[in-house]
Design goal:
The chain is α+β, with helices and mostly antiparallel strands and about 575 residues long. It has 18 helices and 32 strands. It has 4 domains: about 150 residues, Rossmann fold (3-Layer(aba) Sandwich), CATH 3.40.50; about 80 residues, Beta Barrel (Elongation Factor Tu (Ef-tu), domain 3); about 100 residues, Elongation Factor Tu (Ef-tu), domain 3, CATH 2.40.30; about 120 residues, Arc Repressor Mutant, subunit A (Orthogonal Bundle), CATH 1.10.10. Strands 6, 7, 8, 10, 11, 12, 14 and 15 form an 8-stranded antiparallel β-sheet that branches. Helix 3 runs parallel beside helix 4, helix 13 packs across helix 15 and helix 17 crosses helix 18.
Length: about 575
């Protein structure tokens, strides 16, 4: 690495003394044309595979290093298996120490390596002999890295950012610094982040990308983050920085599992070492299909992971890599359904959202859907945003059809009512749905009209029969002529000209239209009468008065005066002060 980049990645005294990598090392290289490559130097020794796994997360290209004087070693095979299980797609084989062997031997090693990688993502990859002593092959290696880097597909920057932490330390004059490879999204200086799984909200004080100060970092870049509000000793490798409030670390997930050839098959409930990103924990492994293709993991410690993440599984004892897994669902249902898992495994985010939304009685909360999928799902064909939830289009149309049918039946049964109470309708159609979902659903169609707390078919009109129109007019006129000494309610209903049930419905219509105002259970006033009273009091603004004064002004008895004054208090026309009132 020093010969290739000019940066010595061995920073520990023991590494320099023993001449081996023990901890992760980091370097970068400018290749021209605005192309900059970051390197993670991982330990090769079999005792440090767990450290290697923390460094391998998020890499795009692997440099598989084979010493020309030793050829392929057991740890080479394990590292190569891990790269395949992590889904690495591009790489270069580097034959180091080429200056220590004869040309014929170097050719034999190259042939051995090509045979070793046959059938893998490294088949046909460049094999570059180099020497860090003489500089042999370093220019050629840079050329191959440049070619391969230009083939990379850009990382997704539209997703929530995630930075699995591989190192945390305190830097004099700056405070706490963490490093990692940004696997998705974009981080910015002064932005707020959450430290998972602790839930701590922190501020990004500063950023460095490949050793240089930056205002933002994007997916794929080696990133150093200067954090405010936390000590370095409170942060561990395996924690993750991400969007605040977006996710939750989980302890249970279902995954598709691949057992390495030659590895001993595990029994259900076996304990294993599980590596996800830079995190490591112990997990129980339950075989869902009896064969190990589908596995449920229960973790000792919560880890932030999302569908599509790759995991490495190592045997509990002896600790060797036995396979890998791809996360399909986090926080899965208690009972696993293999057909459902197959659908989720082959789905894009939109299709996966369709599966999850379709399982809910009233769609799924958008924030919960985002947590489960790792991104805010695009509302592809078949999905609709309704209030705070995402629902299936077919489901929404079916529920709207039920709404329309229910309202039509209500209008037939109650032709004089302006509509059905909204909560009553929700109880019949969507009792388990949040009110916001129901309101959103009603707003999706022009066939339904919502007025205050009533819902009706837009085409519905209250059509009175001849005797009902006459009774309504008579009722309104009686209350108008009654003035402030309004007639008794039961007497008016009895004499309006239609039977009691219809008379009460006509009264409700007038009350809803605010033609009449109900003061209490006994007294109803015409709205014009009350407006005239308010106009009379407006000329006495600021005046203090008692009940006797009010009776004298209006000519009504105490039976009417007290309820009227209480109404005026409620409507802030007057305010009671002890035994008197003041006109506002």
């Amino acid at each position: 690495m020093r010969c290739l980049t000019g940066i010595d990645t061995d920073r520990l005294e023991e590494e320099k003394r023993r001449g081996i990598s023990i901890e992760l090392g980091f370097a970068h290289l400018d290749l021209g044309d605005g192309l900059r490559v970051g390197f993670v130097d991982v330990p090769g020794h079999e005792r440090f595979v767990r450290t290697m796994l923390a460094g391998a997360t998020g890499i795009d290209i692997v440099l598989l290093v084979v010493a020309a004087d030793e050829a392929i070693k057991p740890q080479t095979r394990e590292h190569f298996d891990i790269c395949r299980l992590l889904g690495v797609e591009l790489g270069i084989v580097v034959l180091t120490k080429a200056d220590l062997v004869e040309a014929e031997w170097l050719e034999l090693v190259q042939m051995e390596v090509e045979e070793f990688v046959a059938g893998s993502f490294l088949e046909g990859a460049p094999v570059v002999p180099v020497s860090s002593k003489t500089g042999l092959g370093m220019d050629a290696l840079q050329t191959e890295i440049r070619k391969m880097a230009k083939r990379l597909r850009p990382r997704e920057t539209g997703r929530a950012f995630r930075l699995p932490i591989d190192r945390a330390f305190a830097m004099k004059g700056f405070g706490t610094v963490v490093t990692g490879t940004l696997t998705a999204g974009t981080m910015a200086v002064e932005g707020e982040v959450e430290l998972y799984p602790t839930g701590r909200r922190l501020r990004v004080r500063g950023l460095q990308v490949h050793g240089k100060a930056a205002t933002k970092a994007t997916a794929g870049q080696r990133t150093a983050v200067n954090l405010a509000g936390i000590e370095a000793g409170e942060i561990e490798r395996g924690m993750v920085l991400s969007e605040p409030g977006w996710f939750e670390a989980v302890k249970v997930f279902d995954a598709r599992f691949v057992l390495l050839a030659g590895a001993k098959a595990l029994k259900t409930r076996s304990q294993v070492h599980l590596h996800v990103g830079t995190a490591e924990t112990v997990a129980d492994m339950r075989l869902l299909d009896g064969e190990g293709g589908w596995v449920r993991f229960r973790l000792r410690d919560p880890i932030l992971m999302l569908p599509g993440d790759r995991c490495i599984v190592r045997q509990f004892s002896p600790v060797v890599t036995i396979g890998g897994a791809t996360v399909v669902e986090i926080d899965p249902p208690r009972r696993a359904n293999l057909e459902r898992l197959d659908r989720l495994a082959g789905a894009n985010a939109g299709a996966a959202a369709m599966v999850l939304v379709g399982e809910s009685a009233a769609g799924m909360d958008r924030q919960e859907l985002r947590r489960r999928l790792g991104l805010a799902p695009q509302l592809e064909k078949g999905l609709l945003a309704v209030g705070s939830h995402v629902v299936g289009q077919a489901w929404a149309q079916a529920k709207l059809a039920v709404v329309e049918k229910t309202l039509a039946g209500f209008h037939r049964a109650h032709p004089l009512l302006g509509g059905m109470a909204k909560e009553e309708l929700r109880g019949k159609v969507l009792a388990k749905a949040p009110a916001a979902v129901f309101d959103g659903l009603l707003g999706m169609t022009g066939k339904v009209t919502v007025q205050a707390d009533l819902v009706r078919l837009t085409a519905h009109r209250v059509e009175l029969q001849e005797d009902e129109s006459a009774a309504r007019a008579k009722m309104e006129e009686v209350f108008r002529q009654g003035g402030l000494a309004t007639p008794g309610l039961s007497e008016v209903l009895a004499k309006c000209g239609v039977e009691g049930g219809r008379a009460k419905l006509l009264l409700q219509m007038l009350l809803k239209e605010r033609r009449l105002v109900k003061v209490n259970e006994e007294l109803v006033y015409h709205a014009e009468v009350l407006e005239a009273l308010k106009g009379q009091l407006a000329g006495r603004k600021g005046q203090t008065f008692g009940v006797g004064d009010f009776k004298e002004w209006t000519g009504v008895s105490r039976k009417y005066a007290i309820p009227l004054l209480e109404l005026l208090d409620r409507e802030r026309i007057t305010r009671r002060v002890g035994e008197t009132r003041v006109i506002l």
